[in-house]
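Please, why this fold?
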Amino acid sequence: MSYSVRISGTVLSTLLYECANAEKDIEGFFLGALSFKTTLTNDDSTEQAFEKREDFITIHGYQILNEKPYDSHGNVVKQRFTSQQKDLSSIVGYFKFRRQTDVSLSIRDQSWMKSYSSTIPHGCIAIISSNTNFSDPSTQTYEFAFWDMKNPESKLPVDVANMRESTLGYKSFMSNAPHINQSTISTDSNTAEIIVKQYEDMYQQSIRSLKDSTDKVIEREAEILKLRKEIEELKSANKE
């Protein structure tokens, strides 16, 4: 089965903000759900329509880990895994942020992918890297790529879906609902109202993530201001 990755611009930009402000390289889980979309496609040769299914790994959040859930050889350490995220069904992938490196998989990354797949049957891995822009040292550029956890040779297409100002675009919106068998769903479950509610829930989650990031920026600016005042006070005391 071939997947595509869907992640909102808000979640991606918040994650990149965390990477930019991290004191060291960071890693963590992608949280979300498996989704799929079925459309009817016309076959010109038979003049009949047939169903086309697209499968998605939909990312609506992330969790930065305090401890890597694998050993030096890339093997899963289950205690570290479950102690940091008990709801394994919400994990849809893993990310690694490494400064000034190529966006590629190392031997240990591939070993980790194999071990991960033995614990969680689906998922993706993203390698994120930042490099200094030599023409403007104050600017960082970011690169990233996603792979299927079960196939290190298969890069996954990524759709960065920015939030819309109106939920009237629900017809083209990909639901964040978990991957479940459609045969068990009643016809009422695909109504526009439910799809719009899922969209609004995702929007609220993204807004909360953005607010948390904004609060962190404010806190750090306050700390910087406090340090500057202390420095000025020390300078004044030394002059005296």
Summary: The chain has four helices and eight strands. Confidence is low (pLDDT under 50) at residues 163-190. The beta strands are 3-8, 27-43, 48-64, 91-99, 124-132, 140-148, 151-155, 158-161.
